[in-house]
Amino acid sequence: MPGNDGKHDPSPQNSDMQRQEKCYQLLQTGHPKKAVGQQLGTLFLKLLVPLRLMSFFLTIIVALLTSPNMTLTAADSKQLPQSTKLLAQRDDYTTCHISLPDEPQRLPAIALDGNFYSFFRSLQDSAKTLNLLRKLSANGEQTVMTPNKRGYAIWVHESDAVLATNRGSKARNLPPSFGPANSWIVSADQSGYNTCSLKVPDLPDMVRGLANGQRLFSLYRQESDPKTALSLGSRLSQRGDEIVILVGDASYAIYVYEPSAIVVRA
Predict the structure, then answer these.
(1) How far from 54 is each of 47, 50, 146, CA to CA, in Å?
(2) % of the chain exceeding 90 in pLDDT
(3) Is 174 in contact with 96 (CB distance < 8 Å)?
(4) Closest CA to 130 of 5, 10, 258, 245
């Protein structure tokens, strides 16, 4: 349509209509067939390229929307559990005090892997310790468990913490401390974790497994004693294995990360 200045609107729709009209005019003229063919081919390509681009982007959008990793249920959209560190001995971490922006008092803490964790609670019972770690993890808290004389101490990650020093004293340099591999303590009905059957390269038979997205874990052992489950989980993570402890009603399944495993049956 003509604009206010009398010129034609250079919109994509009008441009396409002009190309189609030009094609028709060329067919009606007496131009040589070769010249007409070349001009028609050029016009056809100008019309085809936008269509191909549109088809390309539509294909990408459909693939993303239908991908299993992009299709989230209401349960899957909730925050996934955070990791925990299961320490086995006192030499694995460094004790210190930290300061927080909204906390006037210094807090007892530990330093591990360049992060600070404030003291949360001390427990004697192994089952309660596992359940508390599971609840904190499900609420989005990164935690550390350390053994002590009474049983276990639980520490919670503080992202805004700074190392506290006494007035008039020099800043303290903490020695580096490196923790074990990550562990995840989850309930048997935790969304995002699905049981499956796996084929592991160094094992002849299929094994029970656990899938968390593209990460696959094979069943290492099933324990009924929570103390044994914590001790075994700590030893495995100390040697560098990422693990998942699946907490059931009266059992604890320990799964080990298998980077080369293949899902045989979900």
Answers:
(1) 12, 6, 57
(2) 55
(3) yes
(4) 245
